[in-house]
Amino acid sequence: FQIKMEDLELMDELGKGNYGTVRKVRHTRTKVDMAMKEIRLELDESKLNGIIMELDILHRAISPQIVEFYGAFFIESCVYYCMEFMDAGSLDKLCWGRATVPEDVLARITRSMVLGLSFLKDELQIIHRDVKPTNVLVNRKGEVKLCDFGVSGQLEKSLAKTNIGCQSYMAPERIKGESQNMLGTYTVASDVWSLGLSIVEMTQGTYPYPPETYSNVFAQLQAIVHGDPPELPAEIYSDTAKDFVARCLEKVPGRRPTYAQLLQDRFLLQDEERGQGGVDMVGWVNLAIEERSKKRERERSEAEAQGQGKG
Ligand code: ATP
Ligand code: MG
Predict the structure, then answer these.
(1) What is the model's pLDDT at position 181?
(2) Does ligand 1 lie within 6 Å of residue 137's CB atom?
(3) Is 33 known to be catalytic?
(4) Distance from the CA of 184 to the center of ligand 2, in angstroms?
(5) Atom 13 in ligand 1: which residue has the minimum CA distance?
(6) What is the pTM of this model?
């Protein structure tokens, strides 16, 4: 059935991205909690209708590693997109510092991502195009799922005009070729790069090409294209994990493995052997949420102290 705004009770704000706001909502009739993303677009009604129709394919994206889609609608120039609410939030906020993700948890998250990406590719012929920690969501059951993949050409086109942000997960070949053909040159290999970069970020707790070390965005993008790719922190993770990441972060796209090859990598085979209950994902998620609230509390009191200092 169709979801309508009248059926939704607005709850907390879950986060803000470059293009809009995500809020928790409750579908009043079914009592299902959802996450609703609002995307403001300056488009006419027929284009907005086109987007809603293109999003319909998401009803077929049913997999344990993909955030469930409930429906979309538009009001005036905003598209509203309702999806499964993931109660532990996105990975970026769960990986709170250096080496806070144990290797078995890292492997479980990575394999979930690869399974999700390969499902999209094989079953729906979809390339994700926006793999990054904020688009990997986790719940308290310890499940890891992908969201925000590119299904609507019209939506992508409308968003592409806006900025690319100062945290680029774009593969070197995309940075180089972007001026010619932004969407056309996109291949699965570029998502494999973004996967590798996301893994490194999880283990460091920070984006691997920190903006503050470069004088400008151009210098930062130069480093991605011409510098050595980042690696997992030494002495904390095994060579198996490091090799996996190095394979994803090959500078030449043709040398990067396919998803099928990644699933056969020792790092992911070891995870498969550990089995469903063999990794304490729930324990890690609980710990990560606790650390996240402590960090938020610290930041809040620091901000307060600063405010008092000024006043
Ligand atoms: P960008 O705009 O560059 O894609 P982003 O992914 O952070 O960045 P949004 O997709 O708008 O931006 O999401 C904003 C935040 O909302 C995310 O960082 C995430 O923490 C939270 N969020 C998004 N979807 C859900 C969901 N289904 N359940 C819980 N939290 C969510
Ligand atoms: Mg997102």
Answers:
(1) 47
(2) yes
(3) no
(4) 22
(5) 17
(6) 0.94
